[in-house]
Amino acid sequence: MNSQGLWNERFTLYSRELQKYLKYIFNGHLVFVMIIALGGLGYYYSEWIKTLDSSFPAALIISIVLGIFMTRSPVSTFLKEADMVFLLALETKLTGYFKRSIILSLVLQSFLLLIVFIVSMPMYSKVTNAGSTEFLTILGLMIITKCMNIGIHWYVLKYQEKSTARIDALIRLVLNVVLLYFALANVNLLLIIAPFILLFALLMYYKKSTEKKSLKWEVLIELEGKRMMNFYRFANLFTDVPSLRGKVARRKWLDWLLVLIPYGPNSSYLYLYARTMLRTNDYAGLVVRLTFIGAVIMMAFPSIWATVFITVLFLYMTGIQLLPVWRQHELKIWVSLYPLPAKMRQEAVVRLVSYFLCVEVIAFTIVMLVTGRFMAAAASAAAGVLFVIFFKGYSRKRMTSF
Asked: pTM score, two decimals?
């Protein structure tokens, strides 16, 4: 069994899969919109930094943000479902395979951490007048701490109990935030060393306690599947992704929404797809996440034009990722047996997507009203309504191309 050859083969397949969708992402029109959005955010960020003084809690905010990125330490294993059958017996020969996976994960996550660090440093420098020496020292500390976080997370994955992973993540988050805060606040060196030693002790404890534990293959495969699904959801913003599939949950507490749909044959498809969207994590969870993120970003920018832009951008991101529900039942023959016009099925999806977008518009408007920005609320509502009307026509054309 050549673990290096297997890892190289899996990494090559993974790279090809990424390249297949990246060429659509960087050729898509939305990427230009995102570049403009990032440019606008950068401009507002630089203007906002000029208003800060030494009383602003930059060290606390940066330590919390970076602490979250340092605590989250997934390992890209490239495992597949069939591996639980064919590779389980060869686990002891796969040490080199998993070492390469851990190193690759460290490199990729360190790069992401570096980007967040670079973005946050102008704010830190404005408040504390820190120089390049402080930046390099903190960056080195972050990379070393990230190594320990990935190591701890890898050992914790050998525990059967899910509560162990949750408790470990909470403990590491607290230690990472405290360590970074002490480093950024430039306190006594002993205070910085204390959480660092605790993290190292945690790493040694988990290493020792899992020496006789085997890997939990079902957990690793599930996490790898979730990681790829996250990428597919992002790629779905730019092109159709056939591999996109969601997790289903009963969600009885949302049944009251289905009562609002009139009973009758004309509502058959509407009821079917409403059930689908409420029970599938990819759709219900997506709307909640994007609405929350969009509302937070809107609160950070006082400009009305920025509010309108963010409203349209997040509505587009939500709508375009909801449209794949159209393919959800395409392989089920009983859906095609409904004695109803095929056009009714398409209209049901268009109506449901429009309802979800309207809920998002209402949420954005309420957030603006609560924060006292009445003109921004009106502008967001008007832009949202116009976008929903436009998107109904666009979604019909998009579905015919599926």
From this structure: 0.71
